Amino acid sequence: MSVLIVGSTALDSIKTPKAENPRLLGGSASHAAVAASFFGPVKMVGVVGEDFPKRYVQLYERHSIDLEGLQRLQGKTFHWSGEYELNMNNRRTLLTELGVFETFNPQLPASYTSSPFVLLANIAPSLQEHVLTQMRKPQFVVADTMDLWLNIAMADLLKLLKRLDGFVLNDSEAKQLTSEDDLFPALKKLHKLGPKYVIIKQGSHGSILSSPQGLFICPAYPLKKVVDPTGAGDSFVGGMMGYLASSKGGVDKNIRRAMVYGSVVASFCCEGFGLQRTDKVTRAQVDERVKELTALTKF
Amino acid sequence: MSVLIVGSTALDSIKTPKAENPRLLGGSASHAAVAASFFGPVKMVGVVGEDFPKRYVQLYERHSIDLEGLQRLQGKTFHWSGEYELNMNNRRTLLTELGVFETFNPQLPASYTSSPFVLLANIAPSLQEHVLTQMRKPQFVVADTMDLWLNIAMADLLKLLKRLDGFVLNDSEAKQLTSEDDLFPALKKLHKLGPKYVIIKQGSHGSILSSPQGLFICPAYPLKKVVDPTGAGDSFVGGMMGYLASSKGGVDKNIRRAMVYGSVVASFCCEGFGLQRTDKVTRAQVDERVKELTALTKF
């Protein structure tokens, strides 16, 4: 089955202590869509400007991503610029130029509205909801978010949360949103806001799922070298949704393995700037790393 | 088989944001020995003063810990006082009174010197080595440490490391000791210093083993409520060594499960002040929680 992914499609200029890379292909939808594409058909919703390089469109196409929902508008592509500190854990935004994103009003092509799996990748919650409203009867809707929306669009986010099956956020966002330091009270509050499936990302420590079936502790693949963690969270949730959409037997049966697959795709993402590494990865390499991770965690 | 454990035997006064508990039974040897006692015979080496409460001796005895190597000297028992911040991750030492520990010169009873498993729980590395030197032919020797010894006794620690099979430390200590931020280069340097088995503790995120058999990612049991994390690391390594000593088939076959058992005993430790919770736990409860943790991590 197909997964519909809406989010940002951006150009990212990323500085790390060791290198500087201007205008890489980035954005939550780009990372999530490529990650999901390892497992099955992906329909992407986004917007780019006139300056969006043709080679990036070709990259999407190489991964068989349906681009009918990708608008091309007059103006500039959303441009984000950020810098990482030495340990790659802290980053700061140097520049955000919204460009064509400022007036983005996603209208789904008719062929998109019946996708059973919907990933509202990180983007303003009002836009996430606008897309959701156009869907007919999605089976499983998951949203990702970021601290920015907790700060400036909390009311929209709370409204959206009521309509979600699953919600993905990192541990500091969970603390900020719930005012709870501890995992269990934070999860309890998050479920009360709507979603039955809550996934808390913990970076290199993996992630935790809380669902009607209880908790699942999902490991992260231990990386020899982190080149650029930008997009790792988007890759995680994209890979997870792609795997879920392509698997038989329902969400509860598959979500644990789906998270492990997402975790592995995210590990590849961290090994290159932007999508440079993920773009070159094969499904066989993903499967191999899942096997490795299985062996690393067996007891 | 038995495990010999040397370390500190102390009175701990622990302040948390919610409570204050003076003169609890504490010390690395106390925590490690009780943790190991769930699995088999334990011989403890330590020193206490005249003020050491009889009820704490009875606690050791209740767990069948061999106390022939516990010296009782004139003077005061080692007293540590510390305070935890709200999130229980940061603690600061308020007071350290060495008492009888200042002149502690552990002499092993003859019955102790042939223990096949030796745990040098956290204590000055020169004392750890002094005990090790008295052992006949131990099969598997593991040491734990803390940042204090990296700061004031690095030469002793480096000397000790050459004689160890296994070394346990937390992630910030690993960074400090190796000057490496990343896991793999840190592990490489640690192995070069001697031990074939290196375990890096990551608190509530679990731990990582690097051994001739490769990596193992060991999960932590997710706790509803952390009352007092003091001694969790000692309980982890104590439980691990106790399980190893009681299991057939060699270290490589058993060490992963041993770490999971250690992790579970440590989880109980965090649920009460000092040893209050661990003291009340049964082997059946430990087994039950290992089963739970197995289910929480299966995919």
Describe the structure.
Two copies of one chain form a homodimer. Chain A is α/β, with parallel strands linked by helices and 299 residues long. The first copy, chain A, has a single domain (3-297), classed as UDP-N-acetylmuramoyl-L-alanine:D-glutamate ligase (3-Layer(aba) Sandwich). Chain A is built from ten helices and 13 strands. In chain A, strands 5-4-1-8-9-10-11-12-13 form a nine-stranded mixed beta sheet, with helices on both faces. Chain A has a four-stranded mixed beta sheet with strand order 3-2-6-7. In chain A, α1 (28-36) runs parallel beside α8 (232-246) and α6 crosses α7. The longest helix of chain A is centred in the C-terminal third of the chain and has 20 residues, at 251-270. The model of chain A has no long low-confidence stretch (mean pLDDT 96). Chains A and B meet through β13, α9 and α10 of A and β13, α9 and α10 of B.
Main β-sheet description of chain A: 9 strands, mixed
Low-confidence stretches of chain A: none
Query: CATH superfamily of chain A, called what?
Result: Ribokinase
Strand order in the sheet with the most strands of chain A: 5-4-1-8-9-10-11-12-13
Oligomeric state of the chains?
A: homodimer
The percent of residues in helical segments of chain A reads 25-40%
Please report the distance between the alpha carbons of the first and last residues of chain A: 34 Å
The topology string of helices and strands of chain A comes to EEEHEHEEEEHEHHEHHEEEHHH
Query: What is the CATH architecture annotation of chain A?
Result: 3-Layer(aba) Sandwich
How large a portion of the residues of chain A is in β-strands, by DSSP E?
15-25%
Quickly count the domains of chain A. 1
Query: How many β-strands of chain A, per DSSP?
Result: 13
Mean pLDDT of chain A: 96
* Shape annotation of chain A: globular
Class inferred from helices and paired strands of chain A: alpha/beta
Tell me the number of helical segments of chain A per DSSP (H or I, 4 or more residues long).
Answer: 10
CATH class of chain A: Alpha Beta
Stated plainly, the CATH topology of chain A is called UDP-N-acetylmuramoyl-L-alanine:D-glutamate ligase
Q: Which two chains have the most extensive interface, and how many residues on each? A: A-B, 29 and 29 residues
Give Rg of chain A in angstroms.
18 Å
